Amino acid sequence: MKISEFLPTLELLAPLAYAEDFDNVGLLVGEFEQDITGVLVCHDALEEVIDEAISKNCNFIVCFHPILFSGLKKINGKNYVERAVIKAIRNNIAIYAIHTALDNHEDGVNKILCDTLGIINSEVLIPKTNYIQKLVTYVPEGTDEKVREALFQAGAGSIGNYKRCSFSSNGIGSFEGNERSTPKIGKRDEFVELKEIKIEVIFERHLQKSILKNLFKNHPYEEVAFEIYNLENKLQNVGMGRIGFLETPMNEEEFLRMVKSNTKAGGIRFSSSRNKPIHKVAVLGGSGSFAIKDAIQQGADAFITADLKYHQFYEAENQILLADIGHYESERFTKNYIVEFLSKKMPNFAVILSTVNTNPVNYI
């Protein structure tokens, strides 16, 4: 199997279009037509992980964090990023990063953290914006079912937990072809009026190309009339963080001990005690200080994240318990999920979990 043939499965796991604009995801090192001998899944594609891939005959590394995040002006091995890239290239090892594409996925990083902490009925904390589009097209009566089904097959019509959603209305369409036209209905230079069906569906922005392809392929007219609008609606199932409930409320100390145990954290930094039970909990794996206000506004009793700075603990304002469990710890089970997903989709292919601990933070 070539890397290009493996990529659709990775897109199912974490569509790259879900990634944040600042991120660097996708195939970072290697060629798309490279044959794969084995896949190694890791958290960070460090030099030690490249060595592990070599020893396990894996020439395709799927990592969570991108080893190449900002641009490199020189590659001469002077730091850990350059050394990893050089070793990968020398040994024909490709590197693919997922990062915020999986952060934003409804089954990704934050759902994994919710499951780890026993948080149920969770929803996206900060839904993705400026991502939903709407297609409007017009078809002759009697062809609408075929066209609508083609749009559904391309991914249009999904709203939250529902799919195949659309709206249709009746009207009268008109057209007149010129001497170069080859109309399917009527003749050149003939004014035609007929009953048409207006079809409206929404879709995620990254699906636009495949949806239009299916529209043009299945629409009966020579020239297809259609409109695409950008909507202000939030994409409810995609976005940063999640918020849900503990099955049974806990006091703060009991809650923090549970979090420490379940995430195997070396330690937890947390804000001042409120002496109130913890029931509604927000989480955001990785650096999540930007979501403190969102967690408070949505009534969370506690917010679990990482990389909080000194002054950011003040932002709790005695309204919420802030807990910093460590960056790696908040994402530590992500690579296990990636292996499970890929192994299920590719049962006859070697997908191996890295055993290298890439957490740069140590505790005493």
Class from secondary-structure proportions: alpha/beta
Order of helices and strands: HEEHEHEHHEEHEEHEEHEEHEEHHE
- Compute the number of structural domains: 3
Into which percent range does the helicity of residues fall? 25-40%
* CATH superfamily membership of the largest domain: NIF3 (NGG1p interacting factor 3)-like
* Oligomeric state of shown chains: single chain
Provide a count of the helices.
11
CATH top level of the largest domain?
Alpha Beta
> From the alpha-carbon coordinates, what is the Rg to the nearest angstrom?
25 Å
Distance between the termini: 45 Å
Quote the average pLDDT: 95
- Which CATH architecture of the largest domain is right? 3-Layer(aba) Sandwich
How many β-strand runs?
15
Determine the strand fraction and express it as a percent band: 25-35%
User: What is the third-level CATH name, the topology of the largest domain?
Assistant: Udp-n-acetylmuramoylalanyl-d-glutamate--2,6- Diaminopimelate Ligase, Chain: A, domain 1
| Sheet with the most strands, sense and barrel status | 6 strands, mixed
**Shape annotation:** globular
Low-confidence residue ranges: none
Strands of the largest sheet, in order across it?
Answer: 5-10-12-13-14-11
Pfam family, one: DUF34_NIF3
Subunit structure: Homohexamer.
InterPro entries: DUF34/NIF3, DUF34/NIF3_bac, DUF34/NIF3_sf, N-reg_PII/ATP_PRibTrfase_C
Binding site for a divalent metal cation: 65, 103, 327, 331
